[in-house]
Structures are given as structure tokens and as C-alpha cells.
Amino acid sequence: MVTVMGAPGIGKSRLAREVAALAAERGVDVYWTFCESHACDVSFGVVARLLRAASGATDLDGQAARAQLRATVPPNINQQDLLLLDDLLGIADPAIPLPQIDPDARRRRLTDLVNTTSLARTTPALFVIEDAHWIDAVSESMVADFLTVIPRTPSLVLITYRPEYQGMLTRLPGGQSIPLASLTDSDTAALLDELLGSDPSVGDLAPVIAERSAGNPFFTEEMVRELVQRGALSGERGSYVCSTGIAELSVPATVQAAIAARIDRLDPGARQTLNAASVIGARFEADLLGALGIQPQIEELLHTELIDQVRFTRNAEYAFHHPLIRAVAYESQLKADRAEWHRRLAVAIESTSTVTAEQNAALIAEHLQAAGDLPAAYTWHMRAGAWSANLDAGAARVSWERAIHIADLLPADEPDHLARRIAPRTMLCAISWQAIQETRGLYEELRELCTAAGDKVSLAIGMTGLETELMFAAQTGEGSRLASEQMALLASIDDPAPTIGLAFIAFNNWFDAGEFGEILRWSQTVIELADGDPAKGAEFGFGSPLAAALAWRGVAGWWLGRPGWRQDVDAAYLARQSDPTSQAMIACWTYGLAVTYGALRPDDVTLNKITAALESAGGSSNAALSIVRYGLAAALLRRDTEADRDRGLELMMHVHDMWTSEPIPFLIPVAELWVAWERARRGDPDAAIPVMRHTVDELHKAGRPFFGVLASGMLVETLIERGADGDRAEAHAAIDQLENLHAHEDWAMREITLLRLRMLMTKAEGDVVAHRHLANRYRSMAESLGFEGHIAWAETVIADSDGRILSETVIEDS
Asked: 16, 30 in Cβ contact below 8 A?
């Protein structure tokens, strides 16, 4: 992987063309894509063009393109994944429905498909990405994922960009960087000798051009072209004659001036063609020029080297010879003329494109915005956001941000002015959960607007993103307060659907902060409002809100020791909808958490249910996938066999990596806790205990009792097991701390955990009578609560104790 950095005109494209020519001469397949300044906010454009080029489908449409694509991928590729790739490339069959999966899953599966195809390549290839400084953010991220396997393939990737670009494609692991500097004076002189020739009449001209071009080869060439087009130079390249004395000859002061002068000298028809083309982009097709209502005049533009023909098919494609030429042609037009071209182009794209209007919505919006039609541009940006939301959250975010910008520019007396300002902010707040400061600012704007408009629903929806971010950032105390505010707001709305659909985020904040009374109250409300309909409220993002409410009522039930929790757990599992994210989340909330705390046993039935959810989670979000993996890992680590615990440890370490990269920071200490606990069981408590001790402190200080109880229990067990100097004292202190944790709350799970720890402590201290008494109390409490895991642990302890007593009795009798 090679990156080439340099200023405009310094020779990046020329170097890329020369490398491509050398590669082609040696039988290397060459694939090319480019980035455009006007499309840097149009998501997927660059990556789609790159993949179409790599599959040989650039000049094909419909069935022909799909057939060509399938000829380039390995035969064992999942056919559903190929449908996703068809859609990305804009060649999907409209008669075939696409897989309904989460955007995260779509991204994972596309990355796997493309990388698998790359790894299967046996012939050498060159991939060129030009002008990466204009790449859209989504394409940049996807291309970076695709490039991770390039070092393992017979491929070379060449990326060009300007110095101001500092994106991820400049930091490719194992990549080589080539910075291009300006030509030296001697190099510039040599270039001018090649361009002008040796006639004495050009001898005094060369130093003037050299000074103006400042070592930039493109600038040098453009100034010579301008003089030729003006008629000041006659002849051919390398043998020009200057008919005007240097004193009478004006050389353009800048390259922009040289290009502008060249454009001014074009025939009106050619100039109109160039101006229209500059609005289309760096590359343009003859047919699209015709759709703008002009008769394209191409020959003069080719002859003067302002454009080049890059595709020689029936519908020829052309490209500006250099991006600066397009920029000058674009900027030199009257604003009114340019706006008219943009308006015509938006209409042409909508009416003539072979893909759906939604796929082109972002591009149409950009052209309408440039045309000055802000209300229409707003509508198209919102359409683009809605379409992109099912594909990539980042792409949707770009469109909604553009819509916000436009809505804020519209006059206050415009119809639906407040509604237009609220709608994109609502959507951004709902999905922006990885940048808490940015989310807070946006949320405050939304709150102010919704208050002015009396829009409670939008405000409640917008709270979701900040709630999620507070939870992920381990600030669940604040998140819980916001969740309670949100639910109170929803309760004041006549429509029950938002209450049903949005409650699951509140449940997640409340459980981490120990607000189980709120969970019981609102889960019961949701269950009653849903009235047995598992899909009611699903339009707000979670496939089965009823299942979520049942699951969380079950969690609160076993935590508080309320009867009926087992029925809720089983009912939640049965009520889950078929969407993978719901299945994954509910499997963890029901069985994963219950096994973690010993409410359920990690038996084969439970393990199979979690495993089934994981196997179907291929279409779920990254967060849901990681959470169901956590549930399975925890269940395996609660098993007795070494093979199960080996698998559980490996899976938990993978979960830790996912939570680090996603990121989901509030769960990272939980994964670290499990890994440390298992390593202590394997004979390395000295390394494990500091990690566990830190986790306990972190969770207690953050006010996160749900996992704090678990961490305290694991730490105490490990200290007792190690039995080093000071361990029992530290274990007693940890037990006392746990006893005081929310001491005013009647938490059955805390109480049974304390009982178990005191029982283990009496055993370690050799107090047989107290140990026996506590063990029997422990078993009785576990049985009364229906905690299968604790029952099994109690029976193991009692059996071990009975065996030890019997053994000691036999020895005494002997």
C-alpha cells in the first residue's frame, strides 16, 4: 500500500497514470476510482465506484452487472450477502427483497465478502484511489476495512491526496508514503525545454514561466497551453516559436488566471459544455450533458486538453484534465447560471438514473442546495437520511446534519419552520451516542425547540441518544434520572406506542444503577399497554418491546426476590421477535444475566438457548452481538468442565476487544472481571486480584451496584481461596462494604450473595458449626427464591462439608 501526497498540480495523477501504464504493460489488472470535491458529503460514492471497477461492472447495468459481479467472487459466497453488495453498487434487482438486517451487520458482512474475495485473488492487481482528500467519510471507513487484507494478496494500492488530508487512509499499517515536492529550478528548466523547444524566440520566455509556476509542473504546462491557445506560441509541443517579444507578452500571474483565459477563448458552445460539465463533476457522460438541455460540443475541449475521454463506449465518459480546470470553470460562472445548471441536474438525476431516487437523494439534495432551492434540498436530505439509516449510521448522520444546516437558514415565517428544525435534530439525537459532549449540545437545542413547539414525542425520542451515551460512558446515575424524565414525559402523551417502544433504553440505565423499582413499575406499564402484541411500538427501533419488558421485569423479579420471575424470563424468550437484534439482546437479558448471578443454572438447555440467539445474531448490531456473546461467555465460565471454561475465557476476551473497539466502556470492567476471575481459578490469583480489586472500586465509586455485587462476590471468593496474609481481612472488609451497598433496599440477590460469602468465610476460618448453619440457610434461601444456580452451589458446598465431616469422623474412630 502506497500513498502519494502533494500539492495540486505537483504530479500525483501523472505518477498514478505512469504506474498504471507500467502495471498494464506487465499484465497487471488495473482498477481506478476517484474522489470529487462536490461529493464529499455523498456517502458510499467512492467505495461503490471502486468495487464496481474491481468487479468489472463499471460499464454494465442491471442483470449484466450482477452476472459480472458473481463471476468475480468465490463460489461459496453467501447469496444473501451478494444481494447486499448489489445494493451498495447500485445494481440490485428491484424484484428481490434485501435482507432485513442491522446496519452494523450489513457492514460486517460486506467487509467479510469483499475481503474474502480479495484473499481469493491469485492474479496481481493495482488499485488506484485518486484525490482521497475528497473521499466521503463512509467510503473512507469501508475502504480502510477492505485494505486490512491487502498485504496478504498480490495487490498494490496507490492512494493520492493533498497535504491537508489527515484521514485514516494516510495511516495504513505497513503502508509506504511518498511525498512529492516542487520541481527544482533545473527540473523546471528541463520541463520547459521539453515543452517549448530550443528556438531562440522562446529563450527569454522560459525563465518568466518558471518563476510564475514556482516548480509546479501542471502550472508550467497550463501557462504554455494558454500561450498556445492565445496564439502567442505557434508550432508543436517541443518546437514552439514565439512571435511576440517578451516585453510585449503578458504571462498569466497564476495558474487559475491561465486556465480562466483558456476557457474564455473557447467557442460559446464549447464553453457552455465545459460550464455544464463542471457542475456535474470531475467526470461526466455525454448523455447526461444532453439531459441538461444542451448540445454538447466536445471536440474543442479535447483538442485544448481541458478534458480527456476516459471511456470509449456508446455513452462516452469524459474527465477534466485536472481538478483545477473544473474548479476554475465552475467558479467563473455567474451564480445565477450555475444555480440553473444545478437545478437542471437535480431533475435529470431523478428522472434518468438507473437506481432509485432514494439512492441518489443525497446527491440530488446537494444540487438543489447549490441551486438555492433550500426547502426542496431539505426534503431530499431528510429522504437521504431515512434511506441511509438502514445502511450506515454515519451516512444518515451526514444527511441529517445537512438538513439541520438548511432548516436553520430558512426564514422563521416559513411553513413548518419549527418542525423542520426539530425533525433532523430528533434523528441525530436518537443515534448520536458516541460523542457525549456533541450529543448534549444538540439535545439542548432540541429541548428548546420542542418546548417552543410543544412537541413532546420528538423530545422523548431525542433523549434516547443521550441516555444511551450516558449508559455507555458508565454515567448511569445521570442516565437513570434522564430515563425517568423521559418516561414521565411519555406518560403525558396520549399515544402509547412511544412509551412501549422507547422504554428498553430506560431499563438498561436503571438496571446498572440499581433502580429496580423503576424497572418493575415501567415494565408492568409497557406489558399492559402492549396488550399481548409483541410488535407494538417496534417502529421506535426495538423489534419486540413486549419481550424487552418481560425480560426486564424478570431481571427485577429475581434481583428483588419476587415470585413469577421465572415465568417472565421464559415468556420473554418466547415473545421475542424474529429480528436478530431483539433475539440477541433478550437472550442475554433473560438467560445470560440470570446465569451470571446464579438465578439459573448454566445447563445444556439454557446454553442452547443462548447459543441459538448467537447463531442468529449475524444480522444484529455490533452492540447486540457483543452482548449475546457476553451472555454465552458468562454461562460457559459458570460451567464445570475445562473445555467449557476454555471456550468461555476465549469468548470473554473477544467480547472485551469488541467493547474496547465499539466502544462500550461501561462494560469493559465487567469483561476484565470475568477474565481475572477465571485466571485466578487457573492458578494465578496474584495477577487476578489487583484487577478484581480495581473493578470493585470502580463500580462502587460510579454507583453501579448491579455489577458491583457480582464483582464484590468474585473478589471475596478469590481472596478466600488464595488465603495469603491479609486476604481474610480484606475479604471481611469487602463483605462489609457489600452489606452497606444500598442497605435500605430489599435486594434478595445482594442478601443471598452475602450469605454465600459469609458461609465461605466460616469454612476458611474453620468454624464448622457456623459453616454448616450458614450452608443450610443458604440452601433454604436459594430454594425459596427458586435460584437454581445457587441451589446447585449450595448442594455442592454441603456435600463437600458432609464428606469432610465423615472423613474426619472415620479418622477419629480409627
From this structure: no
